[in-house]
Amino acid sequence: MENFIKTTVVALKEQLGKDKVVLGLSGGVDSTVTAVLLHKAIGNNLHGIFVDHGLLRKNEFEQVLDFYSHMGLNVLGVRAGEEFLAALSGVSDPEQKRKIIGRMFIEVFDREAHRIQDVKWLAQGTIYPDVIESVSVEGSSVAVKSHHNVGGLPERMNLKVVEPLRNLFKNEVRLVGKTLGISAALLERHPFPGPGLGIRILGEITQEKVAILQEADAIFINELKQASLYDKVWQAAAILLPVKSVGVMDDKRTYEYTVALRAVNSIDAMTADWVHFPYEFLSKVSNEIINKVKGVNRVVYDISSKPPATIEWE
User: Fold this and answer.
1) CA 285 → CA 57, 243, 267, distances in Å?
2) Coil, strand, or helix at residue 114?
């Protein structure tokens, strides 16, 4: 991987020169490795933009910005949660939610990028599986996949695209990141969807529901780490269901939400098997969530594999 890094950095220097480049960062592996490679090539002419759409995990915005700051990257953090939640108000259909989040991301990213003068390039963390999945029946390939959250930006902003990882698989990207000295805590993070908690809150999204799910998800992930299970799971998540049920808390009747826990192992995300956690672990997580998260009185565990079920619920 050292040879790949050297040749890629040299090629990026020749390709970009002193031009300015913008990159949408997510805190994920692909965009982070892309950022570090570009930073080695062009320094602060790389302008990273990390948009908080209000649907991130608990404290994720601050944690990711802190990661990037310690890596010396030039990154602007943009809080836009109120704008996204306003646009999503009253919307329950999952496909409509995805489209609204994607459209809003483009609008916010475009607005912030235009504050930077003389930008010539848009960088993307596209990797080889993305390229393969983008091939149409006729054999042509689209330049940007919608799940990158930047679909339409190159044309809208009249920018050229640079994709330094487009010939690598995910495991190779992680090896590049490790060689570059990127923290294992960041490289080994579970995949997180672009729409964030927006597709883990079934039904209408509200600030109250976001807060509930952030707390439940944080407990689940923390318990996985405490039990040394996090690195043995490909992806884990909590999902807030649009279901309320009767419960008892402190000898009083409650009528509150249900949280579903989802954990799978997969190689390529095309198929996935649910994780067979010990009952004792599931019991502890359930008790922690019910006792500590106001608004939840029932926890269930998803034992569906893909196919037929998808990894995310929406």
Assistant:
1) 17, 20, 26
2) coil
